[in-house]
Each structure stands twice: as structure tokens, then as C-alpha cells.
Write a structure and sequence with these properties.
It is built from eleven helices and three strands. The protein has helices at residues 19-49, 56-73, 76-82, 92-125, 130-133, 136-162, 179-183, 191-222, 228-256, 266-287, 290-311, and strands spanning 9-12, 89-91, 171-172. A three-stranded mixed sheet has the order 2-1-3.
């Protein structure tokens, strides 16, 4: 079958058809989105301006917070606007753009979480080689590889979807453009296509998730040689990282490691990974990290002093 596309836009059914619930969700999602932007921006500004947060771990954390803010912004504003719209539509190009952006940034985050696990492994298991192994050049290269890998992943997913034939209908039973809801609308056999999605997204997620969990288990096992204070500090850091990894990968595995089908719970899972997880990540990293909290307090105090000086 040649490439056929009679669809110029898609109609999104959204989360709910109840007007009252839509208004409530509009308020809730707006607050969540603003908190997400504020929290992640605060971490980026704190790390960039604080001289005490110059280690590779915080360098990677600043990029993770930046990606979380961007990832949420690829979908949340559209979701919020649609909650007050009678007709929820998105153009074909807009849908492909949203698909690319979400998988591009999601891919970057997956690779960056892997880099952060490697950073903790070197710092805890090979502390004498840490400064040499994780020098500025290597850190910059690892971040560049994460961006390049995410771009390649997003490009493959988008080109794969853009060249599929869409003959109609054009109604997506979701509030975002994603692979499985779109595959259900293609006028071709989706069995082979579903295997491709599972291989490119689902298996990649579970493989990297398994590697990350194994690496953190090895790290935690190596803490037996540390002092009680060293164990406490390393355990606190690793617990934060493991929590973020679980919050990110479990929904990813649930959504993509299965045949081409959709479930009612998919929308709730999508809300979780598009809005809740990016909002929780800053809290997870700051509440268990004394260095970040102290740096934020210093930044806050500096701003108060500057405000007082400007008023005098």
C-alpha cells in the first residue's frame, strides 16, 4: 500500500466530557504546571549560580531539571487549553511535532538518568578515580551524547508514524498524540508496527531500567566499606536517584511494553508521566539533599539583601 493520508487534523476526546470536571482539572493542572516550571527553574538557577554545586552530579541534575520543564511544556499547555475548549483538535503536523518533542526529550532523560547512575557508580565505587574519570570534558560529552541519542530516538518514532497511511477516522481517544492511540487510526495492519514500537520503546525502557537498578544495587552493596556518615550521605543520594528512575521507567514500561492496544487507565498514567513526575523530581532531589537546600537558602538570602540595597 502506498502512502495515503486523508487526515489533516485529529480530534482529541480528552480526559473527560464532564464540563464541571474539566473546569476542576483546568485549575489543578495549571497549578501543577506552574509548580513544575518554578521548581525545575529554581534548581537550574541554584546550581548555575552556586559555587558549592560544581560537581558533575549537580551538572547533570541541572540538565535533568531543564529537560523536565521542557518535557512538561510539550504537552501540558495544550492539555490545559483543551480543557476549556469545546472542540479539541490538533493538526497532523502539530501532532507529529508533539510526538517528536515528547520522545526526543523522553529519550534524552532516559540517557541522562543512565549517565547519572554511572556518575554515582564512579563516585562511590571508584572515588580515587572520580575527578579524573568525570572531568569537565567527559561530562560535556556525556550530555551531548544524551541529547543526540534522544534526538535520534524521537526522529525514528516520528518518521515511522508520519509515513503511515491515515485514511480516517481521525478521533483519538486520548488527550495527547502518542504511538498506540495513533496506530489504532492507521489503515494498515498494526501487528508488525506494534512489534517495532515494543522493540524501540518498550524493550529499550526495560533494558535500561534493569541496568540502572542493577547498578544501584552494586553501589549500595559497596557502601559496606564506608563510614556511617558516608553511608548515610551516599544512601540519601542514591535513594533520590532510584525514586526518580522508578517514577520515570515504570509508566514507560507499562505504556510501551505490550501489543497495540489501549486501556482506560492509560490516560491516568499519561497524566502521571507528563505532569506529576516532572513536578515531583525537584522535590525528590531537594528534600533529601542538604547541599542543594543550603544553596537555595543562600540564593534566597542574597536576593533579599539585593532587594534591600535597591530600596535604600
Amino acid at each position: 500500500m502506498g502512502h495515503v493520508n486523508n487526515v489533516t487534523e485529529f480530534i482529541l476526546l480528552g480526559l473527560t466530557q464532564n464540563p464541571e470536571v474539566q473546569k476542576l482539572l483546568f485549575v489543578v493542572f495549571t497549578v501543577i504546571y506552574l509548580l513544575t516550571l518554578a521548581g525545575n527553574l529554581l534548581i537550574v538557577v541554584t546550581i548555575v549560580t552556586s559555587p558549592t554545586l560544581r560537581s558533575p552530579m549537580y551538572f547533570f541534575l541541572s540538565f535533568l531539571s531543564f529537560i523536565d520543564g521542557c518535557f512538561s511544556s510539550t504537552m501540558t499547555p495544550k492539555i490545559i487549553i483543551d480543557l476549556l475548549s469545546e472542540k479539541k483538535t490538533i493538526s497532523f503536523c502539530g501532532c507529529m511535532t508533539q510526538l517528536f518533542a515528547s520522545h526526543f526529550l523522553g529519550g534524552v532523560e532516559i540517557l541522562l538518568l543512565t549517565v547519572m547512575a554511572y556518575d554515582r557508580y564512579v563516585a562511590i565505587c571508584k572515588p580515587l578515580h572520580y575527578l579524573i574519570t568525570m572531568n569537565r570534558h567527559v561530562c560535556g560529552l556525556l550530555v551531548a551524547v544524551a541529547w543526540a541519542g534522544g534526538f535520534l530516538h524521537g526522529l525514528i518514532q516520528t518518521l515511522f508514524m508520519a509515513w503511515l497511511p491515515f485514511c480516517g477516522p481521525n478521533v483519538i481517544d486520548h488527550f495527547i498524540c502518542d504511538l498506540f492511540p495513533l496506530l489504532k487510526l492507521t489503515c494498515t495492519d498494526t501487528y508488525t508496527l506494534g512489534i517495532f514500537v515494543v522493540a524501540n520503546s518498550g524493550l529499550m525502557c526495560i533494558l535500561i531500567f534493569s541496568i540502572l537498578i542493577t547498578s544501584y544495587v552494586l553501589i549500595l552493596c559497596s557502601l559496606r566499606t564506608y563510614s556511617s556518615e558516608g553511608q548515610r550521605k551516599a544512601l540519601s543520594t542514591c535513594t533520590s536517584h532510584i525514586t526518580v528512575v522508578v517514577l520515570f521507567f515504570v509508566p514507560c514500561i507499562f505504556v510501551y511494553l505490550r501489543p497495540v492496544t489501549t486501556f482506560p487507565i492509560d490516560k491516568a498514567v499519561a497524566v502521571f508521566y507528563t505532569m506529576i513526575t516532572p513536578m515531583l523530581n525537584p522535590l525528590i532531589y531537594t528534600l533529601r539533599n542538604a547541599e542543594v537546600k543550603n544553596a537555595m537558602k543562600k540564593l534566597w538570602n542574597q536576593n533579599i539583601i539585593l532587594d534591600k540595597n535597591s530600596c535604600e
